[in-house]
Every structure is written in structure tokens, then in C-alpha cells.
Design goal:
The complex is a heterodimer of chains A (478) and B (245). Chain A is mainly alpha-helical. Chain A has helices at 2-40, 45-63, 73-92, 106-131, 135-143, 150-163, 166-174, 180-187, 190-209, 213-219, 235-251, 255-272, 278-301, 308-327, 333-343, 364-379, 382-389, 397-404, 408-421, 467-477; strands spanning 394-396, 423-426, 439-442, 446-451, 454-462. Chain A has a 3-stranded antiparallel beta sheet with strand order 1-5-4. Chain A has a two-stranded antiparallel sheet with strand order 2-3. The longest helix of chain A has 39 residues, at 2-40. The two termini of chain A are 17 Å apart. Chain B has a 3-stranded antiparallel beta sheet with strand order 1-3-2. In chain B, 56% of the residues lie in helices and 6% in strands. Classes of the chains: A mainly alpha (478), B mainly alpha (245). At the A-B interface, helix 6, helix 10, helix 16, helix 19 and strand 4 of A face helix 3, helix 5, helix 7, helix 10 and strand 1 of B. Strand 4 of chain A pairs parallel with strand 1 of chain B, so a sheet runs across the interface. Chain B: Component of the eukaryotic translation initiation factor 3 (eIF-3) complex.
Chain lengths: 478, 245
């Protein structure tokens, strides 16, 4: 049932939006028309009050509207100014602003769009500098280094979080207390509470885009990742959160945790996909394709048994690639690269580019990819090693090296690497553990030790897991 | 084991306060973090979470960047391999840092060519450690004077690395040829014996070195059974009550 509500509500909101857009346009137009008149006719104060409120509502709505991707620079600048003045008004007025958010999804839409525009502006600016063939735009961008600046974006997000006391409220909720007690004047208002809440998720995203994966995870300390969480009521927020958390885990080499995150949200998306429609579903299915690609990468690093439905879908979408990834070796490298490129967030560099040295403005994606690929290369022989060891209980190292046609010394290295990498930090649910907590676990069913040149191999067999199957069938039958 | 990534037992309170507040973005705290990095270099401990905060400040304020501190942070994070700390630090450096030096040094305006050269050299070391090519690691370290400069500030660098190497070895080795171990640790003769018996507590027996059994190098087979909790059935049981057939 909850799936139904979750899926259906955003769709309804979309319909609202198109009306609202028109309304906003009308209001905008009305304002312009009246403005001219106002200079001559001193308007009655009550009228101006009413109109101001109108104007505000339209500004709130405008802030949640997506900006056309190909909008010219001036529009991007103007949009930045609009956000600044809107957030300035919300944050720095005399006391909390008495406004109702236009809809439940509004706060998410605003923060989402705000960060999306910041993201695409930074990428665009970097591209202009790299290509260095549009003097006019270079000049404009050079003169406005602070537009869509990193500090101002972070400032907005942190201010919204602080004003709304959202972290304190969430901590209180975790302890089972009433959040109202710590909410303060601002935080008790829906507008601030929701903006503050989604700003935390916004921060997760911004940190991840900047390549700070540990801080990204740290940001979510006070948010509980479960179905009762506030973000779960907004489908887009739900999938965004899990995507970025999962990605950050992957970059911290915590593949088991990453898989857990992706699996959770993908199962949820699969269950609700019948209720989602059109435009919204398009963006979500794009995101989920990316997450399947990331799961494929994580499973290659950390072979594990996946949820049945996820496994089937993964084989459907990336069957060939998955096979090559799991086989390892140099042939797998291009596949890792291809999937990473397709599935990573659009990384940005926080500072204005160096317009005088176009060559220095490397796409941040290439940077992060290079670091990631080093880790892939370190690991690429593990599947080979494992596939052989699985066949024996004891094995002579030199003989195995002969099979693999490598020097014994190399093979010793591979064995050490595989052993190290099969020890992973994994999150444990202890009630109040943050996302960065975890215990070291042996993430591999194959274990071995070297005694001189003899390799002793042992396998940890996993007994059949029946409870899940039993429960699912029970639920189906009654 | 089981220590959260953002926790460091050696971290002083004032650093903790900065990390948990908005001052972590304040350019004025750069110098405090820099001093803290210097402390870590002398005191043989590593606080990656704090160092990443400093790199973030550099990322936001490139004019404050101090090349020496960056390389020190990277060298420190080598000493905690095989954790991902080195990579996490690299992610926060400017994107052009890993492009081959020949490209950027061809440009006279590229002021930080020395930094990217240093970072790439350290990255080579990191990859060697990651790939467990320990003897190649030691010979690379000796091959270039630049390395000596880079690790000069970090007290006990070689010792710290050796301990880490010994740790990874003890995970998967019960017995190893002395010759191999010597090349892995980059030590010979007396120094080798002292380290292996004194620091590691291993036993040298003629031409082999014996590593005492531990949880990791036992390699015992086992069967993992499903852990069933009553909570998993709570919904089924509840339904049985709610909908009496």
C-alpha cells in the first residue's frame, strides 16, 4: 500500500505543476504590468501586501522549476540571483517567514534543482575553459568567479540545516523524543523543516560530486535510512539518497555496503514501477540503470549472492559485461571503465577553471576514474587466482605459477592482494551506528594460507538460506 | 578493528571541534590543520579524516595550498595501507594532478608541475604497495632522490611501512623463505633478524621464517549457517492474530 502512495503522489503533483506554472507565469506577468502603474499611482498598502504574498508564492514555485539544459549563460546567472534572493529572504528575514510550502514535494524539488543547476553550471564552465574557443563566454565567466560558487552553495545548505535545527530534531526523534522541543521558531515550521531536511541530502550529493566520499557519508549521521524516513515519501529523494550513499561506499571500497544500498532501492523501484508514469519514471529508470551498472562493478570486486530479482535484472541488462568483469584480467579493464563512466555522478571541480591554461582543466571525471582504475588494476587478478584455488585443497605455488604463466614472485603478490581485499569493513546495525562505522569481515568464501611454497586452501560453505524463501511464500499464500 | 572512519584516538579536542562545526570550511583553520599534520608526522599517528578536511580547504581555496603539506599527507596515508586513505586523499586534489608531467611541464605557466610530479611518484608507490609488490616498492623508493625528500618529514616512515607489510604477510603466510621475506621487508642480516624476531615476534628457523598461527592464516573451512531471528517472523505472526481465519 505504501508503495502505491509513494508512486502515485508525485504524478499528481506533476499535474499540479503544469497548472501552477501557468499561474506563476500569469502572476509574473501581472506583476510586471502592475509595476509600471505603481510608480505613478501610490498603491494602497493592503493591495501591495496581498500582491507581495502572491509574488512570493510564484517565486517559491519558480524555484522548483527545472531550467532548460541549453539555457544561455545570462539565464543561468539570473537563476542564480533568483535563488540567492529567495534563500536570503527565507533565511535572513526578521524571524521565520510565514509561508506554507506549495506542496510536499516542493522542498525536495527546490534543493534538487538548485544543486542540479550548480552542478551543470560548474561542468559547463569547465568545458568552456577546456575548449577555449568561445572568447565571449570566457570573458563573462572570468568576470563572475563567485556566481554559483561552491562556498555560496554550501552556505545555503548549511544555513538551512542550522536554521531549521533539523539535525537536533532528527537526533531527538532517534531518541524517541518529540522533535518540537528542540525545533525552535524556525524548525517548527514545515517550510524550514523540509528545506533543512532535504538540504542534508543535498549536502550528501554535493560532497560526493566534489569527491569527498567520507564526508558525504558522515553528513547523513542523523538520518535514519529506512522506509519511515522523510525522504522515502518522495520517490526522487529516496532513489537519489541511496544512489549517492551507495556510490560513496563503493569509492571507499566498502562493496558489501554499496551492494546493500543499491539492492534496497532497486527492489523498491521494481515494486513501485507500475505506479510511476512518464517523465518521472524515465528519470528514475535512468538512475536505476546506473545503479545496476554499479552493482555489477561491486559484485566483481566482492562476489556475493544477490537478491533474486536484482540478479535477474542485472543479467538482463549487463549480462555480457558482468561475465567479463567477473573473469578479471586485462580484458575486464575497458568494461570497468565503460560502466564507471556511464554510472558515476557528474563530478565537478569547486573552483573556477584556469582560463589561461586550457590543458589544465581536466574533466574531474577523468581524475576520479584514473584513481578508481588503479584500484581495479590492483585487483584484476583476484578472480583468476580464486578460480584456480577453488579446485584444490593444497597446491604448490610454483606449479600454479606455471599454470598461470607468471613468475612465482608475482603470484605471491596476487595471493596477498586477494587476501587483503577479501577483508572488508561492513556496516553493522547496532542501533545508533553512523554510516562510516563498521566491522571488518571476511568477505570471501575462499580462504588460504601459504606454508613456504605450499598453498593450503579452505572454503567456507554457506548453508542454504531458507527463511527468506519461506516467508515470501507464506506471504503469497495467505 | 571496527573503528569508525571519522574517529581517531589521538585527535585533540580542538581539532574535533573544528571538524564537527562549520569552521572546517573556514580558511583560517588551514594553519591549525597544517600544524596538526606536522604533529602526525612527528608522532607516528595518522588522522586521515582530519587530513581530508585540510585537503578540502585547499580544494576550495587553491591559493592557500602548501605543496609540502599535501605530499606529507599522502606519505602519511601510505603508512596505513591497504586502507583506501591514499585514494581518498587523491580524490580531493586538483583534477590535472595525475595527467602525465610531460604535458603540464611543457607549459611554462603551469606552476605546480613539481607537485604533480611528486604526487604521481607517490601514486606509483601506492600502487606497488597495493599490488603487494613489496620488493619493487623498496627498490623504487631507493631509485630516486626525490623520494628521500618526500618522506623526510615523516618520522619512522620505513618502519611504519614495514609493520604494515608484516601485518599483511601474517594474514596469509605460515612459513616463508627467508630470502623472500628479506626482499619484501627491504632488510638484511642483523636488522632483518631484529625486526622479524623483535617487532613481529616471528621465528627464524634456518632458511625459513615461521609466522605463528593467527585467526587469519589458519584458513580453516567452515559452514556458515543462517541466523534466524524471531523478529523476522513478526509480521507473519501478527497477521495470524489480526486475521483469524
Amino acid at each position: 500500500m505504501s508503495g502505491f502512495q509513494n508512486g502515485n503522489a508525485p504524478v499528481r503533483q506533476m499535474d499540479d505543476d503544469s497548472d501552477v506554472e501557468e499561474e506563476a507565469l500569469v502572476a509574473d506577468y501581472q506583476e510586471q504590468v502592475q509595476y509600471e502603474g505603481m510608480e505613478e499611482l501610490e498603491p494602497v498598502s493592503s493591495l501591495s501586501m496581498a500582491q507581495q504574498a502572491d509574488d512570493l508564492q510564484s517565486r517559491l514555485l519558480a524555484a522548483a522549476q527545472p531550467l532548460d539544459f541549453s539555457a544561455p549563460l545570462e539565464v543561468k546567472f539570473a537563476s542564480y540571483d533568483n535563488y540567492c534572493s529567495l534563500f536570503h529572504f527565507i533565511l535572513n528575514s526578521d524571524g521565520p517567514v510565514d509561508l506554507e510550502p506549495p506542496s510536499y514535494f516542493w522542498a525536495w524539488d527546490v534543493i534538487d534543482e538548485f544543486i542540479y543547476q550548480f552542478n551543470s553550471f560548474c561542468s559547463y564552465r569547465n568545458r568552456v575553459a577546456r575548449q577555449a574557443n568561445n572568447e565571449e563566454e570566457i570573458q563573462i565567466l572570468r568576470e563572475a568567479p563567485n556566481t554559483w560558487g561552491c562556498y555560496s552553495v554550501l552556505n545555503v545548505l548549511y544555513s538551512l540545516i542550522q536554521r531549521s535545527q533539523i539535525n537536533e530534531q532528527l537526533a531527538a526523534m532517534k531518541r524517541g523524543e518529540e522533535p518540537v522541543a528542540v525545533a525552535g521558531d524556525y524548525g517548527s515550521k514545515a517550510l524550514y523543516r523540509m528545506l533543512g531536511y532535504f538540504s542534508i541530502i543535498g549536502l550528501l550529493r554535493v560532497h560526493c560530486l566534489l569527491g569527498d566520499f567520507s564526508l558525504a557519508l558522515k553528513t547523513l549521521d542523523d538520518i535514519e535510512l529506512n522506509k519511515k524516513a522523510m525522504f522515502a515519501r518522495v520517490m526522487a529523494a529516496h532513489s537519489t539518497t541511496y544512489y549517492y550513499v551507495g556510490f560513496s561506499y563503493m569509492m571507499m571500497r566498502r562493496y558489501a555496503d554499496a551492494i546493500r544500498m543499491f539492492t534496497h532501492i532497486l527492489v523498491f523501484i521494481q515494486r513501485t514501477k507500475n505506479f510511476q508514469k512518464n517523465a518521472q519514471y524515465d528519470s528514475i529508470s535512468k538512475k536505476s540503470d546506473q545503479m545496476y551498472a554499479l552493482i555489477a562493478i561491486c559484485v566483481a570486486f566482492h562476489p556475493t549472492r544477490l537478491d533474486d530479482t536484482i540478479h535477474t535484472a542485472l543479467r538482463e541488462k549487463y549480462g555480457d559485461q558482468l561475465l567479463k568483469l567477473q573473469r578479471g584480467g586485462p580484458e575486464s579493464l575497458p568494461i570497468f571503465e565503460e560502466l564507471f563512466r556511464a554510472a558515476c555522478p557528474k563530478f565537478i571541480s569547486p573552483t573556477p577553471p584556469d582560463f589561461d591554461n586550457p590543458e589544465l582543466n581536466v574533466d574531474p571525471l577523468e581524475h576520479h576514474l584514473a584513481i578508481f582504475m588503479d584500484e581495479v588494476k590492483t585487483n584484476m587478478w583476484s578472480p583468476t587466482v580464486k578460480s584456480y584455488l577453488r579446485l584444490y585443497t593444497t597446491m604448490d605455488l610454483k606449479k600454479l605459477a606455471g599454470f598461470l604463466e607468471v613468475e612465482p614472485e608475482k603470484l605471491r603478490g596476487w595471493l596477498l592482494v586477494n587476501k587483503q581485499r577479501s577483508r572488508q569493513i561492513k556496516w553493522q546495525d547496532t542501533g545508533d551506528s553512523g554510516l562510516l562505522d563498521g566491522e571488518v569481515i571476511a568477505a570471501n568464501d575462499l580462504d588460504y594460507a601459504m606454508q613456504g611454497d605450499i598453498i593450503h586452501v579452505s572454503e567456507a560453505k554457506v548453508g542454504r538460506k531458507l527463511v527468506d524463501w519461506y516467508l515470501r511464500n507464506l506471504a503469497r499464500t495467505y | 578493528m571496527g573503528v569508525p572512519f571519522d574517529y581517531s584516538p589521538d585527535r585533540p579536542d580542538h581539532i574535533n571541534a573544528i571538524l564537527n562545526g562549520l569552521d572546517r570550511y573556514n580558511p583560517e583553520t588551514t594553519s591549525i590543520f597544517q600544524e596538526y599534520v606536522a604533529e602526525q608526522c612527528e608522532g607516528k599517528f595518522t588522522d586521515t579524516y582530519a587530513n581530508l578536511a585540510l585537503l578540502k580547504l585547499y580544494q576550495f581555496n587553491p591559493h592557500l595550498t602548501k605543496d609540502e603539506t599535501i605530499t606529507n599527507i599522502l606519505v602519511k596515508s601510505l603508512t596505513v595501507f591497504p586502507s583506501p586513505d591514499f585514494s581518498l586523499a587523491l580524490h580531493l586534489l586538483p583534477p590535472h594532478i595525475l595527467t602525465p608531467v610531460s604535458v603540464s611541464s611543457a607549459l611554462p605557466a603551469a606552476g605546480d608541475a613539481p607537485l604533480s610530479e611528486a604526487v604521481q611518484k607517490l601514486n606509483v608507490l601506492n600502487n606497488l604497495l597495493g599490488q603487494a609488490s613489496y620488493s619493487a616498492f623498496w627498490s623504487t623508493l631507493d631509485s630516486d632522490d626525490l623520494y628521500a625528500d618526500l618522506i623526510a618529514d615523516v618520522a619512522g616512515f620505513e618502519e611504519l611501512i614495514r609493520i604494515r607489510i608484516a601485518l599483511t604477510i601474517s594474514q596469509s603466510v605460515r612459513e616463508i623463505e627467508k630470502q623472500v621475506l628479506e626482499s619484501w621487508l627491504g632488510l638484511q642480516a642483523e636488522a632483518f633478524e631484529k625486526f622479524v624476531t623483535g617487532v613481529c615476534g616471528w621465528e627464524i628457523d634456518g632458511s625459513v621464517v615461521k609466522v605463528p598461527l593467527n585467526k587469519e592464516n589458519e584458513a580453516k573451512g567452515s559452514i556458515v549457517r543462517e541466523n534466524v531471528k524471531i523478529e523476522q517472523f513478526s509480521r507473519v505472526i501478527r497477521r495470524a492474530y489480526e486475521q483469524p481465519a
